[in-house]
Design a protein that fits this description.
It is built from six helices and nine strands. By secondary structure, the chain is α+β, with helices and mostly antiparallel strands. Bound molecules: ligand HQG. Removes the 2'-phosphate from RNA via an intermediate in which the phosphate is ADP-ribosylated by NAD followed by a presumed transesterification to release the RNA and generate ADP-ribose 1''-2''-cyclic phosphate (APPR>P). May function as an ADP-ribosylase.
Length: about 180
Protein backbone atom coordinates (compact mmCIF):
# COMPACT_ATOMS: atom_id res chain seq x y z
CA UNK A 1 0.00 0.00 0.00
CA UNK A 2 1.29 3.41 -0.90
CA UNK A 3 1.73 5.84 1.97
CA UNK A 4 -0.47 8.85 2.55
CA UNK A 5 1.96 11.31 0.98
CA UNK A 6 2.11 9.25 -2.21
CA UNK A 7 -1.68 9.04 -2.30
CA UNK A 8 -1.99 12.79 -1.73
CA UNK A 9 0.43 13.38 -4.64
CA UNK A 10 -1.50 10.98 -6.83
CA UNK A 11 -4.81 12.69 -5.99
CA UNK A 12 -3.28 16.14 -6.57
CA UNK A 13 -2.03 15.07 -10.00
CA UNK A 14 -5.36 13.54 -11.03
CA UNK A 15 -7.67 16.19 -9.56
CA UNK A 16 -5.62 19.30 -10.39
CA UNK A 17 -3.91 18.46 -13.64
CA UNK A 18 -4.67 15.22 -15.44
CA UNK A 19 -7.92 13.37 -14.69
CA UNK A 20 -7.81 12.06 -18.26
CA UNK A 21 -4.57 10.20 -17.48
CA UNK A 22 -6.73 7.55 -15.77
CA UNK A 23 -9.88 8.29 -17.78
CA UNK A 24 -11.69 10.19 -15.01
CA UNK A 25 -14.09 13.03 -15.85
CA UNK A 26 -14.51 16.04 -13.61
CA UNK A 27 -17.46 18.39 -13.75
CA UNK A 28 -16.96 22.11 -14.35
CA UNK A 29 -16.46 22.68 -10.64
CA UNK A 30 -13.68 20.13 -10.49
CA UNK A 31 -15.66 17.33 -8.80
CA UNK A 32 -14.96 13.72 -9.73
CA UNK A 33 -17.00 10.70 -8.69
CA UNK A 34 -15.20 8.80 -5.94
CA UNK A 35 -16.47 5.39 -7.09
CA UNK A 36 -15.11 6.07 -10.60
CA UNK A 37 -11.82 7.33 -9.20
CA UNK A 38 -11.38 4.13 -7.18
CA UNK A 39 -12.21 1.94 -10.17
CA UNK A 40 -9.96 3.79 -12.61
CA UNK A 41 -7.05 4.16 -10.17
CA UNK A 42 -7.21 0.41 -9.51
CA UNK A 43 -6.88 -0.26 -13.25
CA UNK A 44 -3.75 1.90 -13.35
CA UNK A 45 -2.20 0.06 -10.42
CA UNK A 46 -3.03 2.48 -7.60
CA UNK A 47 -5.34 0.67 -5.23
CA UNK A 48 -7.58 3.07 -3.31
CA UNK A 49 -10.50 2.49 -0.99
CA UNK A 50 -13.10 4.90 0.28
CA UNK A 51 -11.51 4.60 3.76
CA UNK A 52 -8.06 5.54 2.45
CA UNK A 53 -9.49 8.49 0.52
CA UNK A 54 -11.45 9.74 3.54
CA UNK A 55 -8.38 9.40 5.72
CA UNK A 56 -6.14 11.31 3.28
CA UNK A 57 -8.73 14.07 2.87
CA UNK A 58 -9.18 14.43 6.61
CA UNK A 59 -5.54 14.29 7.68
CA UNK A 60 -3.92 16.08 4.72
CA UNK A 61 -1.40 18.65 5.99
CA UNK A 62 -2.70 21.40 3.69
CA UNK A 63 -6.32 20.27 3.40
CA UNK A 64 -5.85 19.98 -0.35
CA UNK A 65 -9.07 18.07 -1.05
CA UNK A 66 -12.78 18.29 -0.27
CA UNK A 67 -15.51 15.66 -0.35
CA UNK A 68 -19.04 16.70 -1.37
CA UNK A 69 -21.79 16.78 1.26
CA UNK A 70 -23.37 13.61 -0.12
CA UNK A 71 -19.99 11.89 0.15
CA UNK A 72 -19.97 10.85 -3.52
CA UNK A 73 -17.55 13.35 -5.08
CA UNK A 74 -14.04 14.65 -4.42
CA UNK A 75 -12.15 17.69 -5.71
CA UNK A 76 -8.90 19.55 -5.14
CA UNK A 77 -9.59 22.88 -3.41
CA UNK A 78 -6.78 24.75 -5.24
CA UNK A 79 -3.68 24.30 -7.35
CA UNK A 80 -5.38 23.42 -10.63
CA UNK A 81 -3.89 23.79 -14.05
CA UNK A 82 -7.18 22.53 -15.49
CA UNK A 83 -9.38 25.26 -16.94
CA UNK A 84 -12.71 23.79 -15.94
CA UNK A 85 -12.65 24.11 -12.24
CA UNK A 86 -13.66 25.64 -8.94
CA UNK A 87 -15.59 28.92 -9.06
CA UNK A 88 -14.18 31.00 -6.25
CA UNK A 89 -15.99 33.96 -4.71
CA UNK A 90 -14.02 37.20 -4.98
CA UNK A 91 -13.36 38.59 -1.48
CA UNK A 92 -11.40 41.40 0.16
CA UNK A 93 -7.82 40.34 0.87
CA UNK A 94 -5.75 41.30 3.91
CA UNK A 95 -3.48 44.36 3.54
CA UNK A 96 -0.50 42.30 2.51
CA UNK A 97 0.01 38.75 1.31
CA UNK A 98 3.21 36.75 0.89
CA UNK A 99 4.52 34.81 -2.07
CA UNK A 100 7.37 32.38 -1.58
CA UNK A 101 9.65 31.85 -4.54
CA UNK A 102 13.30 31.06 -5.29
CA UNK A 103 16.12 33.55 -5.82
CA UNK A 104 16.66 32.28 -9.38
CA UNK A 105 13.19 33.52 -10.43
CA UNK A 106 13.58 37.04 -9.02
CA UNK A 107 14.90 38.77 -12.17
CA UNK A 108 12.14 37.34 -14.29
CA UNK A 109 9.48 38.15 -11.68
CA UNK A 110 10.63 41.78 -11.48
CA UNK A 111 10.43 41.91 -15.27
CA UNK A 112 7.05 40.32 -15.82
CA UNK A 113 5.36 40.33 -12.41
CA UNK A 114 4.02 37.15 -10.85
CA UNK A 115 2.31 34.89 -13.36
CA UNK A 116 0.59 31.57 -12.73
CA UNK A 117 2.97 29.57 -14.96
CA UNK A 118 1.32 26.16 -15.31
CA UNK A 119 -1.46 26.79 -12.82
CA UNK A 120 -4.64 28.83 -13.09
CA UNK A 121 -3.75 31.37 -10.41
CA UNK A 122 -0.78 32.85 -8.60
CA UNK A 123 -0.75 31.38 -5.09
CA UNK A 124 -0.30 33.67 -2.10
CA UNK A 125 -0.38 33.11 1.63
CA UNK A 126 -1.31 35.12 4.66
CA UNK A 127 1.25 33.31 6.67
CA UNK A 128 4.96 34.00 6.30
CA UNK A 129 6.18 30.51 7.17
CA UNK A 130 4.08 28.96 4.41
CA UNK A 131 5.70 31.32 1.90
CA UNK A 132 9.18 30.27 3.06
CA UNK A 133 8.24 26.59 2.71
CA UNK A 134 6.78 27.09 -0.77
CA UNK A 135 9.91 29.01 -1.83
CA UNK A 136 12.19 26.28 -0.54
CA UNK A 137 10.56 23.79 -2.90
CA UNK A 138 12.02 25.70 -5.84
CA UNK A 139 15.51 26.54 -4.58
CA UNK A 140 16.85 29.18 -2.18
CA UNK A 141 13.69 30.72 -0.76
CA UNK A 142 12.90 34.41 -0.99
CA UNK A 143 9.70 35.95 0.25
CA UNK A 144 7.89 38.64 -1.73
CA UNK A 145 5.43 41.00 -0.10
CA UNK A 146 2.36 41.71 -2.20
CA UNK A 147 0.49 44.98 -1.64
CA UNK A 148 -2.87 43.25 -1.87
CA UNK A 149 -4.70 46.21 -0.37
CA UNK A 150 -3.56 48.49 -3.20
CA UNK A 151 -4.20 45.82 -5.83
CA UNK A 152 -7.71 45.33 -4.50
CA UNK A 153 -8.43 49.05 -4.53
CA UNK A 154 -7.12 49.14 -8.11
CA UNK A 155 -9.70 46.52 -9.09
CA UNK A 156 -7.80 43.21 -8.94
CA UNK A 157 -9.83 40.27 -7.68
CA UNK A 158 -8.73 37.94 -4.92
CA UNK A 159 -10.09 34.54 -3.99
CA UNK A 160 -9.50 32.25 -1.07
CA UNK A 161 -9.56 28.48 -1.42
CA UNK A 162 -11.17 26.39 1.33
CA UNK A 163 -7.74 25.60 2.74
CA UNK A 164 -6.81 29.27 3.19
CA UNK A 165 -4.56 29.68 0.13
CA UNK A 166 -5.08 33.09 -1.55
CA UNK A 167 -5.38 33.23 -5.33
CA UNK A 168 -5.21 35.99 -7.92
CA UNK A 169 -4.67 35.93 -11.67
CA UNK A 170 -1.37 37.84 -11.70
CA UNK A 171 0.59 40.41 -9.70
CA UNK A 172 2.18 43.31 -11.63
CA UNK A 173 5.66 44.36 -10.54
CA UNK A 174 4.52 47.63 -8.95
CA UNK A 175 2.72 45.75 -6.16
CA UNK A 176 5.72 43.59 -5.29
CA UNK A 177 8.67 44.05 -3.01
CA UNK A 178 11.30 41.73 -1.66
CA UNK A 179 11.13 41.22 2.05
CA UNK A 180 13.98 42.96 3.86
CA UNK A 181 15.97 40.56 6.03
CA UNK A 182 16.44 41.84 9.60
C1 LIG B 1 7.36 31.40 -10.12
C2 LIG B 1 1.77 24.36 -3.10
C3 LIG B 1 9.63 33.43 -13.23
C4 LIG B 1 6.67 31.38 -8.78
C5 LIG B 1 1.89 25.66 -2.36
C6 LIG B 1 6.86 29.92 -8.40
C7 LIG B 1 1.15 26.64 -3.19
C8 LIG B 1 7.85 33.09 -11.87
C9 LIG B 1 6.82 29.20 -9.73
C10 LIG B 1 0.99 25.97 -4.53
C11 LIG B 1 7.17 34.20 -12.42
C12 LIG B 1 5.53 28.46 -9.97
C13 LIG B 1 1.63 26.78 -5.61
C14 LIG B 1 7.85 34.94 -13.42
C15 LIG B 1 5.91 33.36 -10.92
N1 LIG B 1 9.05 34.51 -13.80
N2 LIG B 1 9.05 32.69 -12.28
N3 LIG B 1 7.29 36.01 -13.98
N4 LIG B 1 5.99 34.34 -11.79
N5 LIG B 1 7.03 32.58 -10.94
O1 LIG B 1 4.59 25.33 -8.03
O2 LIG B 1 3.32 29.29 -5.91
O3 LIG B 1 1.72 21.55 -1.85
O4 LIG B 1 3.27 26.49 -9.87
O5 LIG B 1 7.29 32.27 -7.87
O6 LIG B 1 1.35 25.58 -1.07
O7 LIG B 1 5.28 27.66 -5.87
O8 LIG B 1 1.00 21.70 -4.23
O9 LIG B 1 3.53 27.63 -7.72
O10 LIG B 1 8.09 29.71 -7.78
O11 LIG B 1 -0.10 26.96 -2.71
O12 LIG B 1 -0.68 21.73 -2.40
O13 LIG B 1 6.94 30.22 -10.73
O14 LIG B 1 1.63 24.71 -4.42
O15 LIG B 1 0.68 23.64 -2.69
O16 LIG B 1 5.55 27.31 -9.17
O17 LIG B 1 3.03 26.87 -5.41
P1 LIG B 1 4.20 26.59 -8.74
P2 LIG B 1 3.88 27.93 -6.19
P3 LIG B 1 0.68 22.05 -2.80
Amino acid sequence: MKDKVQISRFLSYILRHAPESIGLSLDDQGWGEISQLILLAQKKGTPLTIEIINDVVKTNDKKRFAISEDGLFIRAVQGHSLKTTVDYQAITPPKILYHGTATRFIDSIFNQGLIPNGRQYVHLSQDHKTAVNVGNRHGKAVVLIVDSEKMFSDGFEFYQADNGVWLTLSVPVKYLKIEEKE
